[in-house]
Amino acid sequence: PFLGTLVLAFIFAGDGVGRMLKARRRLDDAQAQMRRSEALYRVLADNIKDVIMLADAEGKRIYMSPSIVPALGFPLEELYEMPAYRFIHPDDREALRRKIDTFPATGGELKAEYRVVRSDGEVRWIETSFTLVPQPNGAPPHIVSVGRDVQSRKELEVELMDARLQAEAAAAAKSDFLANMTHELRTPLNAIIGFAHLLKDSPRLDSQDARHARLISDASGTLLELVNSVLDFSRLEAGAVDLDTAPFDPALEAGAIIELLSGQAAAKGLTLELVAEPGGFLSGDAQRLRQVLLNFLSNAIKFTARGAVTMTLTQLPAGAGEAWLRCEVADTGVGIPDSQLVQVFERFTQADVSVSRRYGGTGLGLAICKRIVELMGGEIGATSVAGEGSSFWFEVVLPVAEALAAPAEGADAAELERPVRLLLVEDVAINRELVKTVLAAFDIEIDTAEDGAQAIEAFGQAAYDLVLMDVQMPVMDGMTATRQIRALPLLAAQTTPIIAMTANVLPEQIARCIESGMDGHLGKPMNPGDLLNTIAYWTSHERTMQGAAPLARTA
Ligand code: ADP
Predict the structure, then answer these.
(1) Is 0.85 surpassed by the pTM of this model?
(2) pLDDT at 143 over 80
(3) β-strands 110-117, 271-276: how paired?
(4) How many CB atoms lie under 10 A from the CB of residue 380?
């Protein structure tokens, strides 16, 4: 048994040695494995361009990848010695410190963009993402950061931002310039159109002079159209046009346009036809749709010598309370060659220069139409056969609307119901004279003021039925004057209608007039008929009984 015991003991001992040897081998393997993987990580860390850093909660760096040396220009040992945040740009230091200090509490993902200052003083943008590394025994976590140079991206961003700001400033300057320019153009045009209009009907002119006066009158009207088109187009291009949404009947609007141009068509011996099935009311910008139809129709009449011009309106349900509307104007006129058809919707293009010289026009009409229809989300187009005729069309989808009650009658009373005393506030002498001349034949007594301050003084001294107020004036502008008049402790200060009479015709300019306490607006150049209608309306018995109703507009 002793021997047996000995052998057993030996076997046991032998087994222990075997296990020890095995454990040793495993340890060696593990160490080799660790060395390999450490080497691998080191190769990665050493060769990655991004800067990898491990720091403790106090910001003391435990590890920095060698890529930090070329990134910052300091030797690695120096970087380990530097206080935390030392190489961060002073302007970004505090914000970054705050983010990192709160990071362990908030957790999640932290990304930051900040500038560093290199040893040579160069400043560069860095983008870094931070990750928390939990520590045993509740010790504060360490933080791993991976940073990357984003200087070129930042430079691009800055360039883009600069370019955008510049483009915006240029667009704003252009739109300001156009608003001012058209205002400046309208003011003298007001006098030219007004006096030419009066002159051409004068009985004292011989036929030759009357013809000249008529030519001036026609040409000045064309010039006004051009000024209006340029302003309209540039506002559409700048995205400064807002569409109205109000109920309207497309067939009714089309009928009105047909009626408006029936005289012109008749004068050329053309048949003018409207094919429209009643489709009910839609909600949209009727005035803008009329503008497109008017442009189609006046072109069709202009470019057709004989035959017919037909406007066709089709309206179909488009589901979900919407309707599809197609308007088409077809003519039997000169037509447009295929090669030029696509271009007619571009600005300032006319299909045939010799034709347009004969017919006039600016080449802006269809470009404006295209933008209006596109603003409504619709489509516009044309088909044509040279020598046979053209067809211009547009399609839009609009919400179906409830029918509106017909507008109250009486808004355009053309005759004065009673003598009127009027205060005309206008700084330009020729415009004062024009208004006086236009109104000379009527029972209207006119006092004048040459600026806002004079207007307030005049208002305090006499009772007026109406004030016609220019807006841009020296000393005090029309809006300030209106505000001050409305604040006077007089009943008349609240009830007297004040009508802006100004070449500022942009919707926002008109809105500002109304905000300042004016009741209505007459655009310059003014039309003598509109001027008289406005005076008749605001001094009618019905209106006077209601008192001045702010926010109502007459034009
Ligand atoms: P314009 O003010 O010159 O008429 P538009 O933009 O309205 O400007 O039209 C551009 C051009 O398209 C016109 O000059 C004309 O050459 C052509 N055009 C437009 N409508 C017609 C038409 N119905 N028939 C023939 N040509 C047309």
Answers:
(1) no
(2) yes
(3) unpaired
(4) 21
- The residue whose CA is least distant from atom 4 of ligand 1 is 361
> Ligand 1, residues 230, 299, 311: which to mutate, most atoms within 8 A of Cβ?
299
**Host H or E run for residue 87:** none
3-state SS record for 397-428: EEEECCCCCCCCCCCCCCCCCCCEEEEEECCC
How far lies 173's CA from each of 91, 108, 165, 234, 507, in Å? Answer: 34, 46, 12, 12, 18
Residue with CA closest to ligand 1 atom 13? 350
Q: How far is CA 14 from CA 7, 9, 107, 212, 387, in A?
A: 10, 8, 55, 133, 115
In whole numbers, what is the pLDDT of the chain averaged over residues?
85
Cα–Cα distance, 455 to 448 (Å, whole number): 8
Q: Helix (H, G, I), strand (E, B), or coil: what is residue 387?
A: coil
Amino acid at 410: G
pLDDT in tens, 195-237: 888 888 888 889 889 888 888 888 888 888 888 888 888 888 7
- Per the CB < 8 A criterion, the answer to whether 534 and 555 are in contact is yes
Which two tokens mark 120?
């040579």
Q: Which residues line ligand 1 (CB under 6 A)?
A: 295, 299-300, 303, 331, 333-334, 336, 344, 350-352, 355-356, 361-367, 390
List the one residue out of 506, 530, 516 whose CA is nearest residue 452: 516
**Whether residue 550 has pLDDT greater than 70:** no
CB 400 within 8 A of CB 284: no
